[in-house]
Specification:
- The protein has 87 residues and is mostly beta strands.
- 0% of the residues lie in helices and 63% in strands.
- The chain is globular.
Length: 87
């Protein structure tokens, strides 16, 4: 099974830094579903939604992430946000 490395960072701390199966979040121009080997992208992250993380075992976790941006490159998704907290 392919893996995606997810990093979610804020000015205060790193919230997530691990391998996951997939991530979905709301960008400035709509919803994104990111799976392993996704094409490179950079977009703004909207604070109107949650980040849903799908773990390697299939379980999901929700996280609030405020305004920031997302970058997908070389099978690493990095979300840089002002703040973030698990539900």
């Amino acid at each position: 099974m392919a893996e995606l490395h997810l990093r979610i960072v804020t000015p205060d701390r790193t919230i997530v830094d691990r391998k996951v199966a997939g991530v979905s979040f709301t960008g400035a121009d709509g919803g994104y579903g990111i799976l392993p080997n996704h094409a490179p992208l950079m977009t703004a992250v909207s604070n109107t939604g949650t980040v849903v993380i799908t773990e390697l075992d299939g379980s999901t976790h929700e996280l609030f992430a405020s305004d920031g941006f997302a970058q997908m490159q070389h099978n690493v998704l990095t979300l840089v946000c002002e703040a973030g907290e698990f539900a």
